[in-house]
């Protein structure tokens, strides 16, 4: 089949096991996120700042199989190697990626501002070297969020290092000011002035906040319910920015919600507009435009397998929708990317297909060189990819 090249609005780095040991003091490194796997028992324990979180692992040696019998390794071979990763991307037809941390996403459960700031710097110093290897890599800087001043300082440092996106958790604190509060205004100002894209990855709320709000389920249907619940955090985060006037005050600021689907966008836009009109007497602050206009212009979303996400573009008018591979995570598309893309967008008109596979991503990150045309690839190590 013809190769459909696509940019990914959701991919991940895999941090080396010794990242924090080699970049932080021992007293700080031992409190940063680390994974201990019990392959025989089938469990992984995440240790974070004195806390432990357990989750099930796939069975040892398990390989995923799709409906056509295609088997996929639990982890892509290039996951830990920035040179081999380009080979994986070329074979899958993925050109550029917005890349979040993996283990680093557990930093949202750290409660010590000093530890979080030091850990974020360590992650970012490593991630920027990954990005510098190829312009096809767009690493999202980890921003410490426990104090406004530390968040602003790392945004400024990240921009000076060359980052183009700033990763924020969908909920900033367990107790305290949420994203719609006025106290965060210096952060939005810094992001707007530096031009960094606000990157919300679903499932990035502090683990304690999730369990306290009842979003972790056990028993029948628990796995499906938990997966569903992770999608709501990103929707709430961008709704807070819209409703509190962040995009009104900073019209150049843009945000993306990664791995949370896209069909929710028009629904959230409609609900915010209805509230703005029908409950006008209670609305504060007043906005210069309808809430839906900010969502349709300032907010982007990436989807993975969602068939309905395409309709958000073709039938609902939200053009800020891009596809994402979730490389190299187990629920991603590695091994069947082309099959997935052809099923999702293969029958679309060329302009709409390009918008979803490349155009929306290019608006957010115009510095990335364009993807090759047709089936030919320039190769992962030529001048355009170094």
TrEMBL record:
Q: Which GO terms describe its cellular component?
A: cytoplasm
Taking every annotated instance into account, which residue ranges of this chain make up the domain Amidohydrolase-related? 110-358
Q: Which species does this protein come from?
A: Parafrankia soli
Known SUPFAM superfamilies for this protein? Metallo-dependent hydrolases
Q: Name one Pfam family in it.
A: Amidohydro_2
Q: Which GO terms describe its biological process?
A: secondary metabolic process
For this entry, the protein name equals Amidohydrolase
* Location of the region described as Disordered in the Swiss-Prot/TrEMBL record: 58-77, 365-386
Record GO terms (molecular function): carboxy-lyase activity; hydrolase activity
**Gene3D superfamilies tied to this protein:** Metal-dependent hydrolases
Q: Which UniProt keywords apply?
A: Hydrolase, Lyase
């Amino acid at each position: 089949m013809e190769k459909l090249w696509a940019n990914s609005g959701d991919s991940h780095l895999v941090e080396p096991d010794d990242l924090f040991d080699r970049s932080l003091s021992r007293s700080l490194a031992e409190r940063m996120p680390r994974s201990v796997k019990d392959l025989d028992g089938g469990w992984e324990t995440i240790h974070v700042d004195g806390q432990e979180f357990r989750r099930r692992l796939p069975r040892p040696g398990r390989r995923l199989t799709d409906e056509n019998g295609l088997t996929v390794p639990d982890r892509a071979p290039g996951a830990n190697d920035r040179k081999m990763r380009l080979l994986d991307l070329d074979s899958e037809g993925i050109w550029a990626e917005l890349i979040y941390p993996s283990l680093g996403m557990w930093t949202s459960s750290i409660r010590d501002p000093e530890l979080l700031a030091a850990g974020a710097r360590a992650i970012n110093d490593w991630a920027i070297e990954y990005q510098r290897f190829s312009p096809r890599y767009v690493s999202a800087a980890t921003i410490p969020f426990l104090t406004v001043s530390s968040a602003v300082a790392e945004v400024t440092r990240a921009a000076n290092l060359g980052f183009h996106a700033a990763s924020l958790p969908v909920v900033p604190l367990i107790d305290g000011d949420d994203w719609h509060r006025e106290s965060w205004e210096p952060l939005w100002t810094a992001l707007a002035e530096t031009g960094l894209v606000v990157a919300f990855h679903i499932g990035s709320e502090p683990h304690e906040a999730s369990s306290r709000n009842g979003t972790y389920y056990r028993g029948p249907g628990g796995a499906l319910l938990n997966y569903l619940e992770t999608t709501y955090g990103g929707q709430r985060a961008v709704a807070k920015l819209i409703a509190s006037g962040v995009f009104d005050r900073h019209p150049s600021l843009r945000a993306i919600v990664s791995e949370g689907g896209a069909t929710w966008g028009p629904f959230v836009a409609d609900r915010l507009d209805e509230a703005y009109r029908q409950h006008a007497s209670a609305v504060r602050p007043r906005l210069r435009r309808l809430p839906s206009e900010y969502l349709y212009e300032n907010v982007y979303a990436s989807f993975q397998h969602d068939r309905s996400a395409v309709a958000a573009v073709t039938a609902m008018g939200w053009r800020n929708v891009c596809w994402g591979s979730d490389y190299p995570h187990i629920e991603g598309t590695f091994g069947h990317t082309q099959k997935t893309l052809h099923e999702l967008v293969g029958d679309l008109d060329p302009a709409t297909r390009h918008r979803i596979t490349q155009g929306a991503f290019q608006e957010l990150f115009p510095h990335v060189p364009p993807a090759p045309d047709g089936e030919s690839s320039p190769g992962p190590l030529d001048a355009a990819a170094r």
